[in-house]
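EI: anyone free to look at a 326-residue chain?
SC: sure, send it
EI:
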Amino acid sequence: MGYHSRQKCAGRQGFTLIELLVVISIIALLIGILLPSLGAAKDTAQKVKCGAQLRQLGVASLAYSVDNKEYYCSGPFDNRGRTNATNLVRGYGRFDENGWVADFINGEYAIPGNLLCPTNPAKYNQNLILSRVNESPYQTFTQEEIDKLIDRGFNTNYTQAWYMAQSGPKKKNPRSSGELIPLGPLKDSYMSAVSPARVPLIADARTDTLDTSDEIIRPDGRFPTVKALTDGPIIRDARTNTYGFQDYSDFGPAHGRGKFSIGGGKGHDRTTSNFLFADGHVADFKDLNGDKEFGGRREGTDYVYDDFENGEIFAGDLLSGRLDRR
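SC: here you go
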């Protein structure tokens, strides 16, 4: 090797420590810039997927109505019959044969257990908890039988709206203090006074991840559950038992990320929710006050929903279209 070749080789040097640190810092900075964008893109994709799956459930419900005298389902996903205290019906039959989940599976319209919201903190429905299943039941089930039903798709981590399950109050129950007997499952003719585009059927569910009393036991552990059904009418005037507004507090956010939560035992930071409406469209709503639910609050004799604007969601008496029942 000649002199000039040896000099050229001797002049080659690797990166200095400072140069390596600069390169590493630049890479770390780029990763820090990209990760939030990638996370946001993933959240958006998951919300879109959730919306698409809710639309499938909407198509299933509309198809069911065509085959079943305009009824959108046969009732709630609930194996419990009449309550001991008020004699009110909660479900309309054993939940592997009746209710919207059974309707869709047995009628081959959809399999709700295969269409779970991908980002909800809970993946199981509270009405699959063994103690709830067998509380004044139409049919008792063992844990093994419940597990087999879940494997078949008898599950959902969306919450059904009271409108879809019960439509409206028919009359007051004489055995209780002002309780209402539900009219029955939703059908087209019950929405003659209200646009179906404002009537929610199913939505992302409120999830109380820190509520251990509402956990389901599965072969691989204990897991939080979602609320099964919104609670229905709220008493507008306690003195006269006048009902006027829907309680949507069992709907909750399942997408996005927030920096705060004032929601008691809810224990998560999700911020937005998808809602399916009776006309088949899906819209997203933001939890504007950060309480991890879509409930309301009293303001004088009115009921205010902080998370809903411009009347997109109806919350009154479905049959009359009024916001109260005088």
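EI: Helices lie at 3-10, 17-67, 100-106, 130-133, 143-152, 162-166.
SC: 👍
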